[in-house]
Structures
1.
Amino acid sequence: MTALLAARDLRWQPAGAKAPIVDGVSLAISPGEFVGILGGSGCGKTSLSRMLAGLRRPDAGTLAWKGAAGSPPRGAVSFVFQDPFTSLNPRKPLWWSLTEAAALAAPLTAAARRSLADELLVQVGLPPDHATRFPHQLSGGQRQRIAIGRALATQPELLILDEPTSALDLSVQARILNLLLSLQASRNIAMVMVSHDIAVIRHMAHRVLVMDAGRIVESGEPTALLAAPRSTAGARLVANFLSADI
Amino acid sequence: MTPLVISNLTVCRRADGRVLIDGLSLSVAAGEVVGLVGESGSGKSLTAMAAIGMLPAGLQQEAGSIMVAGVPLGGLATAALRQLRQRTVSLIFQDPMTALCPTRRIGAQLADVLAVAGCPRTDRVARAMALLADMHLPDPAMLLRRYPHQLSGGQRQRVLIAMAFSASPALVLADEVTTALDVSARAQVLRLLVERARQMGSGLLFITHDLGAARHCCDRILVMAGGRLVENGPAAQVFGQPASPEARQLLAALPERAVPRQPLPVGGGLQ
């Protein structure tokens, strides 16, 4: 099967850094696949996810979208940031934030934007009357739903999520994870989730990649890999993870 | 003297009389590590604020009593309350970046805390270096000259823990201190926090929504829901056989207990 997005030998070293942040990473993401990226602070996982989303240009390496060399077309890949509060414009009502990306991709009338916002709110499980509210009027979980709704506005085939639930309570996290599972089931969207939470990645991912010092050091099916990690970085992550399970 | 005893505490909102903490009773013994867990809005942080006499404006204590190291907070004069906060009880916040002053060096901020704790001026540098060394921070002399933004999140949180224990407090309240940290920094900060509390015989009330952290470091777990205490027992009992439906609901949302890629059970409440 042709990969939805394939990355080959991506490298990035910011000016002044002693070592590359991303150091020769190659990977392929299939349609509808859920890929988890695990790693400690500074391992390069967030930088890699930004390159996959086209938010950061690599120093070297290539991307291919559905087999064709080059970056994904506009709107095909969306990004959900860690902090739902700082990623939404505090001075704009939610309908505006939800439809901003769609309005940039193609001109939309105000009525069309409102109607699209209502549709997106329903998709992420919020009532349409939230369209006129502002970010500060929502809970953390509701704001993250808005961030996911905004990411869906361009009908992406790949959603990249950077620690989307790390700022949330357990039950709110559970609702967001359930929403992502239902979106995958109904729309077959591929997802890449960056996290340091082993339990979340094991629950959600078809495949997990472990990163350390800018490289992918291990990959595989999450339950098997996390039960017996082969890499030092994988073993360190598992050893430091404080599970609440008895 | 028991570091913290809260009896039948009820806190209401003045504007509409809504009860936010409802008849809460708990205690933390010397050297004991007690985890206070629950969802957002369950009243965990409000309990901590009440325990240091710092209820937010608009809220009032309707009933109950709070004793910190044998001193009843009710009716305490402002000066006495300030002294209690300086010498007897410490609070460690979630975000070390906003808890530290960004424009002052770590050494100056530690010296302030030591001055309040009664440490003579000539001893402060040596004492500050010893506190940082206790937190396993490398090169304490260099660290004293650094600004908060030059430290990692885990290092900043360890500086705050050093400050919190500088006056040998009877009670330490740690409010979501590991939420902003990654897995390895979190494990290290937790280990140091608990180690320090046990060494100094301080009671530690560890407030968190991170059930994994609570399970690993606490002697006893308290679960709050809707402003009430719904569970109180050793970690093995609370996590293994929770008695209340609220605690069972909370634990059911743990991804590590679920079948991979199957919907997690969720109850009502916040979205």
2.
Amino acid sequence: MLIEFFYQLRKGGLKVSLTEFLTLLEALKQGLAQFSIDEFYYLARACLVKDEALYDRFDRVFAAHFKGIEQVFGPPGAAIPDDWLRQQFERIFSDEEKALMQAMNWDELMDTLRKRLEEQKEEHHGGNKWIGTGGTSPFGQGGYNPAGVRIGSRGGQRSAVKVWDQREYRNFDDSVELGTRNLKVALRRLRRFARQGAADELDLPGTIDSTARNAGYLEIKMVPERHNATKVLLFLDVGGSMDDHVRACEELFSAAKSEFKHLEHFYFHNCVYEGVWKDNRRRHTEKTPLMDVLHKYPADYKLILAGDATMSPYEITYAGGSVEHFNEETGATWMQRLLATYPKAIWLNPEPEQRWTHTPSIRILSELMEQRMFPLTLGGLERGMRELS
Amino acid sequence: MSDTSRPDQHPVTRFTGTDRYIATEDLSTAVNAAVTLGRPILIKGEPGTGKTQLAEEIARSLERPLLQWHIKSTTKAQQGLYEYDAVARLRDSQLGDVRVHDIGNYIIKGPMWEAFEQDQQPVLLIDEIDKADIEFPNDLLRELDRMEFYVYETHQTIVARHRPIIVITSNNEKELPDAFLRRCFFHYIRFPDAATMTAIVDVHYPGLKQELLKAALETFYRLREVPGLKKKPSTSELLDWLKLLLAEDIAPETLRSDDRRTVLPPMHGALLKNEQDIHLFERLIFLHQREGR
């Protein structure tokens, strides 16, 4: 059974190693988590998953694999005597409700629950439809439905089924839209490469140390130079079709701002032309010529362009194609200049990746970027950061 | 409740939280697995959710000695094992000190060595491992796995008398290598929900007025919901704030959300640590007030 689970996890995209799996088996052998599936779930998670971003994926595989298995551990609510339960049941629910609940079998109950979880937007206590504490709904803590499912985190003594079905770690999965915290974690990938290169700096403590070891004869030690920070040049698309993605871009911007000491940002509209700007309110009066940008910031800056790249193909490939002004040179030319100056460059696109092939302008820009276009999701950002570093 | 006079004679082997630390079920499961199998446990989570405190509380509840190793950006893995003070030896040799003939005099034990030598199984806290260099965890692989290491200077192998319970915390500033992760149990401390939070506050301030606590928690969670905050207030900030509220004897009514006169919650300095955040919050309140009119 567990071997199957192991392969399911690997198939589900979790890189579970054999040693970790053996650790889990050893833990089970030692008698940890014998009587409760909750405990087994927590134990398995602690053994097999080493990144909170993957909790959600684990939850899904676990739910799929152990669906129905919980009967082995005893049906939900088995700790409560049947008679008492029936009594409460008679007392609390109207005939209509009872009929409704009995009509639902386990699967239906779970499906309804899932639907309600999706519907529910805010915390709720009491009432009879939503999930919350102290309600008469079959779902929720303190409900009396014999097949009721506890939603809530305080375990108490009773066995609670399907904690994993809540998917509390949902917003950590890397195919989901981002919050700044997640973004920062992804951007941190760039940080680790800050201390690499040739050893060309005198390592003073190292030299003293090795000289002392060498009985007082001088022995010089060198270390690589320490680059204090990664430098980033961020170009953000604003207006038009980007309005749908303002939030994602804001998050990217605020995360990047707090993450990099050397961050320069500029705005553009749809495609990069001869002028970019730093302040959207004064975009028509205070434009910075792109040439100045190219000259001012050296090639060791890493270039990140964020935009949906959704426009008419003319805006990229034709002179005068811009929707806002008459551009003497094509957008493609300016893109090529940018890329020639900054060899480390990526394009982050908030549009879903599946849609890219259907939009000609995205295809064109992706080609210009030499396929270095990534979706603006955690996973995409990580791929992008790997490309940059 | 006193923790020193336990009625049962058997040593405690299961960790379930203490009188001043609330451990959720998933956390105690992970900790107990690590204790039973003698493997390190890696703890991640938002700052201020009690990662460091966990090690102290494990040591306290299982009645084990606690050794701490706080990691800085300059910390080397070797320093946790031992250091060879070559400079002191050089100086001694020039002064003609007799100690110089025994290299063992210049070996300074690190926290891991200390932990390996304890008479009973100790708890070793390796705090904020992500602050160190990227290679740091890799340098400790064998030591964590086999719980032994070799001292080159004196040609001796130090083997742990009891496998220490190693608690490692990380703030996720750097990614840890897979080989390292594979050797650890992992737990992510989720931000506590309202029910857990009430329990946490309860162990810190027993007898706190219920209505004050309720009002404070509402304010706190509402504050956490404010979009765009740079640093969301965490558990430890809430506890500090409650202490201030208690000290100032603030009435629960002052915290109520419908009171428009109070612009910011009282003593907000304990919750919002960033000037931009305070500014943002003020602006939001201003907007709400205008809408309400």
